[in-house]
Amino acid sequence: MVTPREALAARRKAAGFSQERLAAHLGVTTGTVGRWERGEATPEPPTQRRLARALDLTGVQELLELLYPQKSLLTAVDERVEVRSTGSRAGQPGRDPRRAVQTGHSLDRVHGVVPLVRRALDAFDLPDDGPTRPLVEISADVARANEHRLEARYGALADALPDLLAELARAGQVAKEGLQQQQVALLRALALRAADGIAFKFGYLDLSGRLIDLMRQSAAQANDPLLVAAAEYVRTETFFASGDLSTAGRALLRAASALSLSNLDDQHVAAAYGSLHMRAAVVAGRIGDPHAARDHLHEASEAAKRVPEGVYRGTAFGPQSIRIHELAVATELRDPVGVERAATWHPSAELPAERRSHYYIELGSAQLDLGHHEEACVCIEMAREAAPQHTREHPQVKGTLAALLQRRPGNSRVVELAAWAGARAI
């Protein structure tokens, strides 16, 4: 069976282009064209128009239908646009002196957009008049929004959300019954998840709870059990915010048990099942139950053997994600052996930036607890290199830096990081 991206390569050859010639024609690298054809990247909108003309297509709509067939809307959203951090992963990362200014500006945009997101939710059943594109085009924007979330580009995500949510509300009004309504519900659920990616992290907990409830409703309307499982994974944030960890554990276990009746040999089912246990392990660690944490990690690890590292229904899962959560559990349990074991490994640059930064944030906190102050500082720098916007706003980072300011007063690296993150000595 020819995949959409294989069809793109075939169309390129039919138009008489090698990868090298097409790259030169579009002003991109040969590697970029290769990533498009391997499904690792998506052309940006300005390039889409030029690419469509080069391939003798009738327009962007035909190109999008080639990349994202209507029957594969969910696959389109799960695929990730290839825009990556390129910093060093070993030693002290290089720093762009402009980054603090750029990051601050991006984060200001997030706070400015929150009222617009609230307004879009208020008008979900009464959306403003406006254009409503074909779902295949909307799906590309939903995919891009979730890529911004995964790569911790919160300013860009905030810019996209109000119009995207409003258009999805209009799409729901005009959708015909049956499959089309389910497709709109699917895209709406994933767009709501993208919105929660900034609401929860920036402390808008009431908005986060509302978004999660709407995501759960939309996932149920989409009639997709795996999307329902993803919504339950995200729902854990509500219990983290309230401190009700026992209910969080029960909710995750119930969702995982429902999936256990499905075919776990299917990669997407295995990824959803493993993600729920992966998160349940962290909940158990936070409660202080090492036996439950170990059991959940075992279930997640078994599931990870069935799937490559990737993004499934908007959640990163695979062997590397398991390693990162093993560290999170060791940190919660104050397990120095587990922390030391985790410190010998580094996540691949192929992982989403937000998840990579989580690893270094957790490791920095653990190194602080072990009295390894220099290592803790390096970890925060590496987290910043991976995902500056995520790292700067993370409360664990502020806590680690506040403690380092007290224990290493006058250290220039600590002072610089603390000033950047807005951390103060305890």
From TrEMBL:
Pfam family, one: HTH_3
Secretion signal span: none
UniProt-annotated stretches for the region Disordered: 84-104
Positions of the HTH cro/C1-type domain: 8-63
Domain of life according to the entry: Bacteria
Protein name in UniProt: Helix-turn-helix protein
InterPro entries hit by this protein: Cro/C1-type_HTH (IPR001387), Lambda_DNA-bd_dom_sf (IPR010982), TPR-like_helical_dom_sf (IPR011990)
